[in-house]
Amino acid sequence: MLLDSSSYHATASRRGTEDWRFRFARGKRLSIPLTKHTLDVISQPGVTVRSFTLTRNRLSLCIALDVAKLECTSTVGVDRNLRNLTVGNEEETRHYDLSRTVRIASTTTRIVASFKRDDSRIRTGIASKYGMRRTARTGHLLHATTKTIVAVAVQAETGNGIGRYQGHTCSPP
Questions:
Q1: What is the pLDDT of residue 159?
Q2: To 10 degrees, the CA torsion angle through 88, 93, 94, 97?
Q3: Non-local CB neighbours of 103 within 8 Å, separated by 6+ positions
Q4: Which secondary-structure segment (H or E) carries 41?
């Protein structure tokens, strides 16, 4: 059920608990008690409840948060190869070593290939187990590297070329 923001609001009841009231049909209203944390989050300035899903035992709120824009002084480019990641602009270039991810992938491939069981179900289970392990280990390294790049870019007020981090990117001046 999608509603506009004028059809629901938080109000205080006589019992001292906060309720979230919304109108879902002409003249029909429903009041749901919420926890203090939930009310604190949706009562912050810049937070709007876009939609909600109400089931028998759960209320799920979809919220939107206004994010302050960063003023960028320059931009950086990102180049990722198999074994390294390079981030830089006209003034500075940084290299990040990703050869450990290649080592993890080759080790996993070697481990899976070493199993000689002639049962496709068992072989598939083993390959799945080690494949998930490889994904988790390499994903951790890539996430940590990307987080470092974004932290450095935000500290230097620089927009970066990583598309997923839209709150931190900007166009050149």
A1: 60
A2: 90
A3: none
A4: helix 36-42
What residues does 166 pair with on adjacent strands? none
Q: How far, in Å, are 94, 148, 157 from residue 151 at the CA level?
A: 13, 5, 10
- According to DSSP, residue 68 is labeled P
- Rounded Cα distance, 161 and 75, in Å: 8
What residue spans define the domains of the chain?
5-65, 74-159
Within 10 angstroms of residue 172's Cβ, the number of other Cβ atoms is: 9
Q: Which residues contact 75 (CB under 8 A, 6 or more apart)?
A: 89, 158, 159, 160, 161, 170, 171, 172
Per-residue pLDDT reduced to its tens digit, 107-153:
999 998 898 877 888 888 888 999 999 999 999 999 999 899 888 88
Two tokens, residue 157 = 């007020």
C-alpha angle 161/167/168, rounded to 5°? 45
Decide: residue 29, CB within 10 A, 0-12 exposed, 13-18 middle, 19+ buried.
Answer: exposed
Q: What is the pLDDT of residues 64-94, one digit of tens each?
A: 988 877 677 777 888 888 899 998 888 888 9
pTM strictly above 0.70:
no
